[in-house]
Design a protein that fits this description.
The chain has 118 residues and is an alpha+beta fold. It has one domain: NE0471 N-terminal domain-like, CATH 3.30.2020. It contains four helices and six strands. A hairpin with a 7-residue loop joins strand 5 and strand 6. It is globular and about 40 Å long. The protein starts with a strand and ends in a 7-residue tail after the last helix.
């Protein structure tokens, strides 16, 4: 079952993607978060254990949002990354699980010895 967004709005100055869904859910997703959790094979890999820990994206922004049919958008990031298709379900899941995903990401960065830039 797919839930559809009613509005997708990019706030480039604050580097946030605001997404409203038909069930009333409202998410403000940082561009860095969307970039490091890209659904692309480059980030997610081709199977369990092949994921890539993406670093150095603290100031990444979205330069374009391209609709893909009636089921997804392609987010084009200003670092050149544009291979992930963000289906409505993926966007909803990223919004719903943002706090847990982000804490897990910060833990993985710490485990790798990476220090995020402010």
């Amino acid at each position: 079952m797919s839930i559809h967004p009613t509005e997708i709005k990019l706030h480039q100055n604050s580097r946030l993607l605001e997404v409203n869904f038909e069930d009333g859910a409202h998410f403000q997703l940082p561009c860095e978060y969307l970039r490091v959790f890209s659904p692309s094979a480059e980030v997610r890999g081709h199977g369990p254990g092949t994921e890539t820990l993406v670093t150095g994206k603290e100031t990444v922004n979205i330069s374009a949002i391209e609709p893909i049919g009636h089921y997804a958008v392609r987010l084009v990031f200003d670092d050149g990354h544009a291979t992930g298709l963000y289906s409505w379900n993926v966007l909803y899941d990223l919004g719903k699980n943002q706090a847990n995903n982000w804490q897990d990401y910060l833990r993985r960065l710490a485990d790798a010895g990476y220090q995020r830039r402010a």
